[in-house]
Amino acid sequence: MTSHTTWNPARLRGVIFKRVGDDKPYPDHGLRPKDWSSLPPRQVRLDELVTTKGTLDLNALLDEDSTFYGDLFAHVVEWKGDMYLEDGLHRALRAALQQRQVLHARVLVVD
Hints:
VapB-like_prob; Type II toxin-antitoxin system VapB family antitoxin; Conserved hypothetical protein from pyrococcus furiosus pfu- 392566-001, ParB domain; globular
């Protein structure tokens, strides 16, 4: 008897992330990628994050140089009490695979 495990994105909720989303519900903040560098990085718990992308590219996740051309830190937007992972899904999943519960991120608070 063969058992098949089906992919269930709902399993990521409460296991890795607070919620798995696929959009950015917060207002446009106007920051360009290079503007994020003015925000100091801090630790953010993975289970407090809501994703803004529902899919990822496994090649980018597994690429050892995945942060070579971008910011070394994830980008998080804090809005209405939630923390949205705007950029850095690959970094967050890599951290989870390494059994880490926190991610270093630049956090922008939007009113």
